[in-house]
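Batch job 17 of 40 flagged for manual review because the log was empty.
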Amino acid sequence: MSIQFEVMHKDIAGRVGRLTVGNKRIRTPALLPVVNPHIQIIPPAEMAAMGIEGLITNAYIFSKSADFREEALSRGLHSVLGFDGLIMTDSGSFQLSVYGSVDITNEATISFQRDIGSDIWVPLDIPTHPDTPRETVEADLTVTMNRLREAKELFGDDAPLAGPVQGGLHPDLRKKAGRGVSELGFAFCPIGAVVPLLESYRYKELVSSVMPAKEGLSSAACVHLFGAGHPSMFALAVAMGCDIFDSAAYALYAREGRYITPSGTLKIAEMSELPCACSVCRSHTAEELRSAPDKERLLAYHNLAVTQAEISRIRLSIQEGTLWDLVDERCRAHPRLLDGYRELLKNASVLEQSDRATKRRFFYRGDESCRRTEVIKFQQMIPRIQLSARSLILCGGPRPQEFEEVLELRPPFGAVPTELSETAPMGQSEVPEWDDAMLTTAFAGVEALLSSNPDCEVTFSATPELADLIRRRFPDATVIS
C-alpha cells in the first residue's frame, strides 16, 4: 500500500495534486481535520458530507482507550469512526511534545497503526520545541532519523509510512533532515514541531523553517505541515510548497466561542452580524447562534466550512496562476503574517525555479510585488535581449520615427521589446500609477539591459517629470521629453 503523489497544476511552489494511498485518494492541498474518538463534535460521516476527503486521528489515544482500543483492532479504524475516506494516524508524538514522554515504542506504535487499518502511519519522531538549544535539537533529530530508518527496515519500502522532518529553527538542520528523509525513500513528509510558532504568530520563523526543509526534500514528496489549521495562513504555506494541513482548530475554537474567518478569528459574543454564506450563518442571526443550545456544534460546522472554502479557493488560485494575489491579500490581515510574506519573498529566486511560466495576470499590489517570481523570471531573461544599434526606450514621452528598435518601460519589469509586450507576465500586468518602488525595480532591469548591450546607443523618451529622474539614474544616456 505505497504512497503516490501526482502534481496536476503548479503556481509559485504550490501544487494542486492527487495523493493516493492504496485505494484511497484525496485532492491536495487538503485539510485533515483532527478527530478525537472520545469527543466527536462533528461525526466523521458528517464531515464526509461536507466534502472532507481525509482526516487524522491519534493512534496513541486509541491504543490507551478502554472504550476504543479493542474495537479498533477488531473492526478497524474506518468502521469505528464511520469514515470511508483516507485516515492518517499520529504516533503519539503530540503527547510526547506536551507531556515529555509516552509509554510506547516506535515499533509498537507503527504496528498498532497497521493493525487498526490506518492509511498513513507515522513513526514516533521527536517534535523538538523551536526554542530548544541546538545541541538538543541535533540529538533529537538523530533519534528521529534512527526511528525512520528502523521503520523502513521493519515494515518495508511499500509501507504507507510518513517521514517527519524536524530540525527546530536551524535552517541547516531542517535542510539536512529533509534530504535524509527523501534519501530514505519517504514520499509523504510532514514538517513537524511548528505549532509553537503558529500559536505565537511567528510566521517569519515558520517560513525560515519550512523553506530549508523543502529545499532538502524531493520535489516529488507530498508535504504535510503538522498542526496548521487556521485558514489565514494556508495561502502562505501553500506558496512554500505545503500540500496537507491538519488541525483541531475548528472544534477547539468553537468550544471557546471563537468564529473563524479567512483573515482571522472573532468572538461570537461580540458579533452583531455573521459575515459568511455557510448554512449555519444563513440560518441563524448572531444572537440566535450565541443563545443556541448546540452553539458549540454549530460554530464547529461554520469553522470547518470556512476552512474548507479557503482550501478550495487556494486550489482554484493555483490553477488560475493567481496564488501570489491570494497570499498578498491574506498576509495583509495581520502584521506578523506580513512578516512571513516578506520573508517568503526573500526566497523568490528559489521559488522562481518551480514557478509556472505563464499566468492569468500580474496585479501590482505594492512594494512586495516588485520581488515576485514573475519579475525575477523576466529580469533573468534580459541578458538574452539583443538591441539594435540605435534603440529607444519609451517612458511616457513622444515616439520619434528614426529609431531602429523601440522598447517600452513596463514597471516593475524593465524595458520590454515590442515583440514581448503581449507575452507573460507583461501582457497580463495591471499596475496603478508608477511609484518609486516599481520604478526602482524597472530601472534595475534597464541597467541589466544596457550592460548586456554595451555597444548600442539607447535614448529615453520620457515625460518631463520622469526625465530628470532618468538623467540622474543614467547620467550618460540621451533623454528627450
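Reviewer: the log was empty due to a logging misconfiguration, but the result itself is present. The radius of gyration is 26 Å. Unflagging and moving on to job 18.
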